[in-house]
Amino acid sequence: MRFLHTADWHIGKKLHGFDLVEEQNAAFEQVKKIALEQKVDAVVIAGDLYDRALPSEAAVEQLNQMIIELNLKLGKPILAISGNHDSAARLDTGHEWFKATQYFLTTNLAEAIQPVEFEDTQFFLLPYFQPYQARNLFEDASLNDIETALKRIVEEMETKFDPKKKHVLVAHFFVAGSSKTDSETKIEVGGLNAVPDKLLQDFDYVALGHLHNKDALRQERIKYSGSLLKFSTSEADLQKGVWIVDTDPFKCIFVPVIPLHDLIVLTKSYQELISPEMFNQISPESYVAVKLTDKAIIPDVMNNLRNYYPRIISLERAYGREKNEIDRENVNLDLDPMQLLANFFHEITDEELSAEQKKWAAESLSKLEKERGL
Amino acid sequence: MRFLHTADWHIGKKLHGFDLVEEQNAAFEQVKKIALEQKVDAVVIAGDLYDRALPSEAAVEQLNQMIIELNLKLGKPILAISGNHDSAARLDTGHEWFKATQYFLTTNLAEAIQPVEFEDTQFFLLPYFQPYQARNLFEDASLNDIETALKRIVEEMETKFDPKKKHVLVAHFFVAGSSKTDSETKIEVGGLNAVPDKLLQDFDYVALGHLHNKDALRQERIKYSGSLLKFSTSEADLQKGVWIVDTDPFKCIFVPVIPLHDLIVLTKSYQELISPEMFNQISPESYVAVKLTDKAIIPDVMNNLRNYYPRIISLERAYGREKNEIDRENVNLDLDPMQLLANFFHEITDEELSAEQKKWAAESLSKLEKERGL
């Protein structure tokens, strides 16, 4: 069979305060068109349908409408799971009814074990989960991390494998070795750690959600679809789209989705940015992230640039290390606060704290400690 | 046909901080039992399924489970509408799928005009609405209040009347002449005004939601079902339950629902309340509203009473006028603030402001006005 693999729609998301309703609807229209042109037998949505556990009414209406169009109007079967951004309980509403029209939605672990059967393929829909849910389900206190929990879940799934069919896993987690962008919640911190890809090798295809880069993982049969839109500056150069997967014989091609309004990074000087040759090239509806090459102070630069780029979403200095580039994972939290501060200052400014700055910092830290009763 | 008429479940509601999950589940179990014993052909839920537009995850799971049991497990058709406490958009999720199992849920006005057809009865499911929705639907700018809007809606419904069938309206509003309790949102203020009952006379039965007293309106064929639980002290003496309605020949009987834990008002002195003969009579799980007959000051009385009545929900003095009794609708807001305050003081204490109290009040009012720049 042939299916379309997408994920991370994040309906309801805003980009630095800008509503993305139009962009999301335009991307969805393309997904529909691709599904029809490619004559897919099903559409897989691998989690994070919503951006928030508590989506707004408008977001609820928007997603409901999309699912209605895809499933009820176009008649495409849907295979979906909840991601870490979704509220499993809220997303679950109505799911017992959805099966009647082949809209298969799984938000709880117990249901993940039962495959959804197609003529030549079994789909296992594994929602985002925490280890405690696996401990409860299997009544096994040893399932303390995501790796041991997933190992147990996959073993259980394999008992249901029909040898005459292909086996597809739909899941939402971080696979070890993947590369990240800035717009994904770092869910592996405090709960969901990286999953080793060796646990996934028995499936004919693994349709992943969570990471927004389709090339986050370089494997033939274990893939992130990536998001449909660029949700952060670090995604500016990524190609967005969906995978079209044939299960037998296996084939996987990427079909691009073109953003209605692009996200563009401009690394320029202020004078270049405000020259007509420059700003006339950029649609006023594009989302623009500016990396300013100037070193001098420019008064009210963000507001001034907004006159030329109405949808400016961020402003950074190209020289001087950026906040985003700090390797958060390698911060040694065992250092004392003064040393942490000194390191941070150095990271940001490439300079050392002066004697006077050290004195101010020491005073502030000591005041804080007193307030906290330390 | 025979149907069960209920409304105002208010799933997720708390009673002065106490969770009502257990009470709501127990009431629901009785509704299920009544539906089976009475062999009803359908269950009508006339709005306010949830207590809030944004119900908690637990409330969402609880209501979903109830609907699944009633509709999918017992196989009872459901006819439901959104009330003023529900978010139409959120409640609507999945409704296109629900029809397949005869769960008919209407949250928008356009769908209200189309009857749901049963063998001998047509149901018109009219959700809670605002006049602007009728203006938009009918493109008629003259529909400025609820009365003219409803008149127009009913005219439209009547064009769909099948003369061979009975006609039932399910709606959620305040019908003129009904008596209120304290736990209903006063929706007629600022938008939804009272509906004259003459607009409803062409229906064989009108199944109403909104008011929590089954006897709020004394009409044979236009009835509130009332809520399933007592949600305020003013409901302590009301009988709760559901109507069982036969459409042909018309018959309407009330079947009580017994609260798992009752709400009791005790009008007693402190000494009486803390005597074993008294508190031993009252289950520690009952919700107790105390009207204290003492006039003297009793230190820390609420906390002391909680030792005997763990679920005490309110404490008032039986003598001295109560806040609830003030006739809010007759407050003249055109008076100046000082006069309003003096009237209020009189309402509460039956005394006049002293010269010194007047001076303090004048100082506070003048300070407030300055802060607001008046």
Topology:
The structure is a homodimer of 374-residue chains.
Chain A: E1 2-6, E2 14-15, E3 18-19, H1 21-37, E4 42-46, H2 57-73, E5 78-81, H3 88-91, H4 95-98, E6 103-106, H5 109-112, E7 116-117, E8 121-125, H6 131-138, H7 146-158, E9 166-172, E10 205-209, E11 222-224, E12 241-247, E13 250-256, E14 263-268, H8 270-273, H9 276-279, E15 287-292, H10 301-308, E16 312-317, H11 337-349, H12 355-371
Helix pairs in contact in A: 1-2, 11-12
What does this structure look like?
The structure is a homodimer of 374-residue chains. The first copy, chain A, has helices at 21-37, 57-73, 88-91, 95-98, 109-112, 131-138, 146-158, 270-273, 276-279, 301-308, 337-349, 355-371; strands at 2-6, 14-15, 18-19, 42-46, 78-81, 103-106, 116-117, 121-125, 166-172, 205-209, 222-224, 241-247, 250-256, 263-268, 287-292, 312-317. Chain A is α/β, with parallel strands linked by helices and 374 residues long. The first copy, chain A, folds into three domains: 2-256, Metallo-dependent phosphatases (Purple Acid Phosphatase, chain A, domain 2); 263-317; 329-371, no CATH class. A six-stranded mixed beta sheet of chain A has the order 6-5-4-1-12-13. In chain A, helix 1 (21-37) packs parallel to helix 2 (57-73) and helix 11 (337-349) crosses helix 12. The longest helix of chain A is centred in the N-terminal third of the chain and has 17 residues, at 21-37. The relative contact order of chain A is 0.11. Mean pLDDT of chain A is 90; it is low at 187-192 and 321-325. The A-B interface holds A 53-54, 57-58, 60-61, 64, 68, 72, 87, 89-90, 92-98, 100-101, 103 and B 53-54, 57-58, 60-61, 64, 68, 72, 87, 89-90, 92-98, 100-101, 103.
